[in-house]
Amino acid sequence: MKTAMRKTFGRILLAVLMGLGWTASISAQELPRKTSDGFEVPQPGRKFVFPRDHGSHPGFKIEWWYVTGHLFTEKGRRFGYQATFFRRAAPLRKNEDASTDRQLYLAHMAVLDAQSGTFLNQERINRGGWDAGSSTTSLDVFNGPWRLAMTNAVTEEMSLNGGLHGEAAFHLRLKPSKPLVVFGTDGISRKGADPTASSHYLTFTRLETTGTVQLDGESFAVSGLSWMDHEISSSQLDSGQAGWDWTAVQFDDGTELMAYVLRRKDGGIDRFSTLARIDRAGRVSQVPADKFDWKPVGRWRSAATGASYPATVRLTVLDEVPKRVLTLVPLAPDQELTGTLGGIAYWEGACRVQDATGAVIGSAFLELTGYTGNLSDQMR
C-alpha cells in the first residue's frame, strides 16, 4: 500500500511543487471546465471567499500548503524549517464503492540548525481518514501528529505543529503582517502550454512567527518570519521539463520576491519561467523569463545521491535600473531531502541573500529539483 501510494505521488509532484505564475492572459472561453478524468480546472476571475478558500478543494486533483521560515533565539541562534502538506484525489476505479475515501495525503518536514549544520527531515504518507485529512471550511490539514490550522478567521493567524523522528519538533504561531497575494493573471497561474495546466496560487509572503523549536532534548524560544503557499490545481507535469529551480526571498526592507526557472530536457529554459515582486503594501508585479537571469555560481555534491546541486545562485533582475543583483548563499551545504516525494531526492534549503556589494539584505528558501535525473521521466 505504501509503495503504491508513494508511486502515485511521484507521478504528480512535479506539478505539485511548482509555484508558477505567468503574465499572459487567458479567457474563460479558452479553458475547459473539467480535465479528461473529471477534475475541475482553475477558472479566471474566481472570487475567493475566506476562510473557506484557505481550506481544501476536493473537486481539484492536486492541492498543497507549503510553509518555510527563518527562526532566531534571543541569543541569535538560527533555524530554518519547512512544512508541506499535499492532498491528491483520484477518480473511483471500476466497481469501487462510492463511499471510498479517494484522498491521499503526503507531508514532509525539515529543520536546519544553522549553528551546527544539522539538517533533519521526514515524510508521512496516508490515505484520507483518521490519520490524515483536510477541512473544506477553513485551513485545517493534518497528517499523523503534524497539523497546520487557522486559529482566527479574522486575523488569519495559524498554528503549525510538527516533529522529526523524535529528534526535533516545532510548535509555531503564524500571523500575517501583509495581505494575502494571488500570483498569475486574473487569479490564474499558468504552468504550461496546455490551458488546463494551471493553478490558483495564494500566498502569505510575510508571516510573523513565534513559538518553540526542540532539538537534541533542548527547547528554544524563537521568533522570525515565514512564507506560505497554497496552490489548487488539477494539472499534470510537462513531459518536456527536466526540473526546476525556485526561490522565495524576504528582504529586510519589507518587500519580497518569488522566482523560478523551469529547465527543459533540451537544455533550454521554459517560457513559463517567471519572477514576481511584492512591494511593502502587498502589490504584485510579474517579470517574464527574458527579463531576469538565474545563474548558478556554486555547487554542492550529495554523498547520498551523487547529485550535484547549483545551491549558490546569482539572480539578476534585468528590468530594474540599475539592475538588481542578488546572491543566494545556503546557510549549510547539505539540505537535501532524500527520502521524500516518492523516493525522488531534491534540495530545499534556507539561504541568506546578499546584494552586489556582499551585504546581507534578506533571507530566502531555495528549491532545486531534477538533479538526480529528469523528473518527468522518473515520475512516469
Ordered list of secondary-structure elements with their pairings:
Layout: H1 2-17, E1 62-72, E2 78-89, E3 103-113, E4 118-127, E5 132-134, E6 140-143, E7 146-152, E8 157-164, E9 168-176, E10 181-183, E11 189-190, E12 198-215, E13 218-233, E14 241-251, E15 256-264, E16 274-278, E17 284-288, E18 292-301, E19 308-317, E20 324-330, E21 336-337, E22 346-354, E23 360-368, H2 375-378
Strand proportion? over 45%
Tally the helices: what do you get? Answer: 2
Give the mean pLDDT.
87
State the share of residues found in helices, binned by percent: under 10%
How many runs of DSSP E, i.e. beta strands?
23
Oligomeric state: single chain
- Rg over CA atoms, rounded to whole Å, is 19 Å
H and E string: HEEEEEEEEEEEEEEEEEEEEEEEH
Helix/strand-derived category reads: mainly beta
Describe this structure in words.
This protein has 380 residues and is mainly beta. Helix content is 5%, strand content 50%. It contains two helices and 23 strands. The chain has helices at residues 2-17, 375-378; strands at residues 62-72, 78-89, 103-113, 118-127, 132-134, 140-143, 146-152, 157-164, 168-176, 181-183, 189-190, 198-215, 218-233, 241-251, 256-264, 274-278, 284-288, 292-301, 308-317, 324-330, 336-337, 346-354, 360-368. The strands form two sheets. Strands 1, 2, 3, 4, 5, 6, 7, 8, 9, 10, 11, 12 and 13 form a 13-stranded antiparallel beta sheet that branches. Strands 14, 15, 16, 17, 18, 19, 20, 21, 22 and 23 form a ten-stranded antiparallel beta sheet that branches. It is globular. The two termini are 18 Å apart. The relative contact order is 0.17. Mean pLDDT is 87; it is low at 1-5 and 14-29.
